């Protein structure tokens, strides 16, 4: 998977690939545009935890080293997609024009995804094609390594043994020897037939379903009620959203996959499952903007009944993009450091994190802090020439 330094100009920093599945969607476009804007000094890296002092001297690849490509089943060019996002207020006015060359460069690296309507290729053929696309990207661009990040629209949970599209892409990432991130609630590496492959390839991976809004708030409020010994009787929620994700989640099966992570956060942080459900409504007029409302009924001292209501209004794409840039850098560094398997310490970023880590945001942040220190120690060891273990991560220490 690695390429020799001779394929790069002498003294140039190693370049790192970020292969986005769903590369022409709103989230991916915002990732590419955001990285270009930050590296050009046009905007601050707001929302990027990897740009805080927590990860100073931990050996993360610089943002300027990231090179983008990916798969998608649509053909709208990234510059045009960025213009539409700017018109909708997702990207700053004028930004697409300022970074047209960066958007066009990423668009040239996008390959057809699948399966497409009428596609006659079997799963292994699709996986082989996707793998070859990733390997060609790495070799042709002279990349030191690449990370595959799944940001395509949510798919329904599979009902049979066939691999859904997200799992085809995940299998391709593993075959290509690339770290993998599932930022969606889609199946990805969770398919039973990929367990053996994931365990044998020797790359780090993380997921599932990025925690950007309502669940982020729930992972803070749940521990508050539990720690103050306040009894939560019911916790109900509603999501109103548009865009591609809203359309995808209009499918009840896809919505069920999304809601599972939201409801798990409540159950895990409270230690019990209160009454109430979470509903998702597609409102096309909202575009990439989302309103999430929670109604929490709880009992206080002497059984006094009270309620808390919260409203979260935000733009999913711009909430997600800095997290994806964080994860791409973290997985790259973990791969370079020899870490393998599920990175449970990155549960801070996900609704439905891998492994048995904590669900409360404060505890997840503590785990992330420990992970940052581990990477910092490995970076010091590398600079001093001291040997470091080949494997790390919570489960492998």
From TrEMBL:
| Pfam families for the chain | Inos-1-P_synth, NAD_binding_5
One of its GO biological process terms is: inositol biosynthetic process
Under the heading InterPro entries, the entry gives:
Myo-inos-1-P_Synthase, Myo-inos-1-P_Synthase_GAPDH, NAD(P)-bd_dom_sf
The record's GO molecular-function terms, alphabetically, read:
inositol-3-phosphate synthase activity
Using the record's annotation, list all stretches that form the Myo-inositol-1-phosphate synthase GAPDH-like domain: 213-317
Task: Please give the Gene3D superfamilies that the UniProt record associates with this protein.
Answer: Dihydrodipicolinate Reductase, domain 2, NAD(P)-binding Rossmann-like Domain
Q: Which family does it belong to?
A: Belongs to the myo-inositol 1-phosphate synthase family.
Q: What is this protein called?
A: Myo-inositol-1-phosphate synthase GAPDH-like domain-containing protein
Q: What is the lineage of its organism?
A: Bacteria, Bacillati, Actinomycetota, Actinomycetes, Kitasatosporales
């Amino acid at each position: 998977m690695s390429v020799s330094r001779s394929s790069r100009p002498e003294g140039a920093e190693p370049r790192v690939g970020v292969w986005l599945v769903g590369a022409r969607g709103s989230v991916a476009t915002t990732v590419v545009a955001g990285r270009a804007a930050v590296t050009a000094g046009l905007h601050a890296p707001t929302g990027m935890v990897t740009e805080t002092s927590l990860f100073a001297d931990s050996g993360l690849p610089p943002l300027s080293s990231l090179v983008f490509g990916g798969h998608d089943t649509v053909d709208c060019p990234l510059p045009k997609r960025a213009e539409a996002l700017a018109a909708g207020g997702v990207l700053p006015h004028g930004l697409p024009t300022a970074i047209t060359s960066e958007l066009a460069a990423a668009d040239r690296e996008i390959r057809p995804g699948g399966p497409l309507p009428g596609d006659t290729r079997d799963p292994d053929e699709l996986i082989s094609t996707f793998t070859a696309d990733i390997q060609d990207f790495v070799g042709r661009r002279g990349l030191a390594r690449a990370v595959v990040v799944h940001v395509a629209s949510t798919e329904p949970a599979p009902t049979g043994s066939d691999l859904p599209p997200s799992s085809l892409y995940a299998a391709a990432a593993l075959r290509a020897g690339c770290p993998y991130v599932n930022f969606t609630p889609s199946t990805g590496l969770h398919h039973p037939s990929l367990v053996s492959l994931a365990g044998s390839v020797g790359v780090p991976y993380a997921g599932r379903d990025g925690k950007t809004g309502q669940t982020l708030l729930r992972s803070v409020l749940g521990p508050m009620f539990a720690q103050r010994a306040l009894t939560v009787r019911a916790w109900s929620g509603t999501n109103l959203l548009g865009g591609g994700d809203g359309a995808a989640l209009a499918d009840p099966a896809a919505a069920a996959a999304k809601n599972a992570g939201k409801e798990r956060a409540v159950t895990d942080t409270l230690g019990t499952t209160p009454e109430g459900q979470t509903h998702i409504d597609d409102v096309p007029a909202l575009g990439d903007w989302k309103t999430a409302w929670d109604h929490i009924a709880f009992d206080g001292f002497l059984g006094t009944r009270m309620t808390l209501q919260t409203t979260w209004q935000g733009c999913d794409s711009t909430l997600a993009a800095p997290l994806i840039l964080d994860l791409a850098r973290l997985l790259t560094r973990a791969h370079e450091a020899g870490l393998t398997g599920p990175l449970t310490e990155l549960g801070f970023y996900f609704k439905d994190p891998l492994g048995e880590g904590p669900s409360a945001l404060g505890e997840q942040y503590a785990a992330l802090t420990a992970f940052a220190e581990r990477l910092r120690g490995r970076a010091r060891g590398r600079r001093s020439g001291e040997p470091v273990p080949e494997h790390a991560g919570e489960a492998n220490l």
